[in-house]
Amino acid sequence: MSFSDLFDSEFKQRNKGHFASIVRVALTDEKFSPEEKAFLDKLAVRLEISAAEYEEILENPLKYPINPPYLYEQRMERLYDLARIVHVDHHLGDKQEVMLRKIGVGLGFNAENVDYIVDKALKLVDKEVDLDTFIFEMQNMNK
C-alpha cells in the first residue's frame, strides 16, 4: 500500500465517522425530515461518501467511531455541520440537543464548556451564518 493510499484511507474513515455522527444526531428523533434527508444527501457528496457507504451508515451509524480532528478549525467545521442538521427541521428535540452535546465532547470540546459552545453554535446556525462567519464567531465568543 502506497503512502497516498494510506492517507486516502484514513481520510475516508474520518469522513465516514463524521457523517455517521451527523446521522446519529439526525436519527435521535427516530426519523429523517425531508430537510434532514436533503442535507445528508448533500453532505455525503461533499464528504465523498459512496452510495453503498451511505446506505451502510444509515443502517448502523454506531458502527463508526467519532474521530475528533486535531485542528480546532476542523472541529468547528464538524460542529457547524452537526448544528445545521439539528437545526434543519426547526425542531430541536431534547434527544438531539443531548446527542449534540455528547458528540461535542467526543469532538474534543471541554465537557465543562460544551453547553455554552453548543448553545452558541445553535444560535449562529439559527441566524444562517456561513461557515467562515461561524468559525470567526466561535473563536471570538469570549472576547
From TrEMBL:
SUPFAM superfamilies: TerB-like. This is Tellurite resistance protein TerB. Gene3D superfamilies: TerB-like. It comes from Flavobacterium limicola. It comes from the Bacteria.
